[in-house]
Target: Crp/Fnr family transcriptional regulator
Amino acid sequence: MTVSHGFMSRLSDTDIAALDERWHKHDYRHNELIIAHGDTGRDVFFLLEGRARVTMFSEDGKEITYRDIEAGEIFGELAGIDGKARSASVVAIAASRVARLPEAAFRDMVVKHPNFAWTLLEHLSAQLRRMTDRVYEFSTLVVRKRLIAELLHLAEEIGPVDGQVFISPAPTHSELASKISTHREEVSRAMSGLAKKGLVEKRGGMLVLRDLTALEGLVGKKE
Model:
């Protein structure tokens, strides 16, 4: 079994074979809950196919999105490491196939497979850096700049083609709002402004970022 990208793409064939002997696979429907916030389970999960979203809800029912999970990624690893309750929920946002690794097997992989352990450290380091960036953006940037920063994060994950980035499917304004802690109307106004400047374009089911350099300049520009 091979996965072309994400956490699992950095594992050796030996690591993948060892995982394949230990985990259990399960299919999830669109919008089906995979992990519930506060759950006390300690198993670790790998997204083999599909997409999932890490999310929480505030007391007033507002959805807060932490990140989207693509095929090949690991999730739920914090509970497998520290044994505490789940810090967020994970929901399938497309039909997905997930492999569930029992806690004991996860710990055995960390001890007996050094490459797996090091890849896990790299993954945790990347997540910590991302959260540090998020705290900075939420603390210092106005909504418009937070939106542009989020678009640039998506661009970094996808990569440019002929100087443009094609995000497919295009995120809804509600989804973007939940990621940058604001309201859909604020995102709609900001996206309209960027479209008028020719920096973004809705093309079919895709969102096209037409000028990354200009977008980066807007994030760094003083108000």
